[in-house]
Specification:
27% of the residues lie in helices and 23% in strands. The protein is of the alpha/beta class and 257 residues long. It binds fe (ii) ion (2 copies). One fe (ii) ion (FE2) binds next to loops.
Length: 257
């Protein structure tokens, strides 16, 4: 088990990466879970399913009591994000779920009662108050899911980017902080070209983040971008001319050829 890492600490806020167990590497795509604490209250981001629950829950308790989790933020609906939700709600009884208003109706299928404790995020995003801190929920639709959101904390200036910025490593390779961006690109390229919907979705997201002072980008898979690498990552995304649907036709034709 790798130790958790406090990515940023500012004015009573702590943004924490909740570790990884190397044994997970052989089982499925590696996932990152994060906790933001604002003094004694907290929000969990994409806490994941049964594969990681024990590790995430134990690590979280080094920083906060489960009853002080006020929100569980779900960037979208994938199993690596929502499949442990009923477990999480039983251990964090005061948590309210934040999810797109396009995806809440699917949660009863993972055993969650959506009549209580669900805050539906509208297409334009919203702000939420955590112990006095105004967190911004930023629209990032079709990157890759319809009804897809990111979370930005204006105090630590950390931006949780869900699947955007994800990297998939070959066996035996892994690191949590990006050091050499040029080297790191090759682990992101295939994922973004396959999973992100199209170039237009990237452009709309770039408009959404204009003016945000981002010091760290923390994705749900792969590695964290700090300092200069934040700008390098955004520039790299701008340089992707075609992703997803932009490439589908030629990909289908090449397979049938
Ligand atoms: Fe996803
Ligand atoms: Fe994911």
């Amino acid at each position: 088990m790798i130790e958790p890492l406090v990515l940023a600490e500012e004015k009573g806020n702590k943004f924490v990466w909740l570790s990884i167990d190397e044994a997970e590497m052989d089982k499925g795509i590696l996932t990152n879970q994060y906790l933001l604490t604002v003094k004694d209250k907290g929000i969990l981001m994409d806490p994941g399913g049964p594969l990681v629950f024990e590790r995430v829950y134990d690590t979280m308790q080094k920083f906060i009591k489960p009853e002080d989790i006020e929100y569980i933020f779900l960037s979208h609906e994938d199993p690596d994000i929502v499949s442990g939700l009923s477990l999480w709600l039983s251990y964090c009884p005061n948590a309210k779920i934040l999810i797109s208003d396009l995806w809440d109706r699917f949660l009863p299928h993972v055993g969650v009662d959506i009549k209580i404790n669900v805050i539906r995020i509208p297409i334009q995003g919203m702000e939420i108050n955590l112990n006095g801190d105004e967190l911004k929920i930023i629209p990032a639709h079709f990157l890759h899911s319809v009804g897809n959101f990111h979370l930005y904390d204006p105090i630590t200036k950390v931006y949780f980017s869900g699947d955007l910025g994800a990297a998939v490593f070959p066996a035996g390779k892994w690191y949590i902080i990006v050091d050499d961006f040029e080297e790191h690109k090759k682990y992101m390229e295939g994922f973004h070209k396959k999973y992100m919907a199209n170039r237009k979705a990237i452009e709309l997201w770039l408009n959404q983040i204009q003016g945000l002072d981002i010091k760290i980008i923390a994705p749900q898979h792969g590695s964290v971008f700090e300092g200069e690498n934040v700008k390098k990552f955004i520039d790299w995304l701008k340089s992707l001319d075609k992703v997803g649907l932009d490439l589908l036709e030629e990909e289908l034709n090449s397979r049938s050829a």
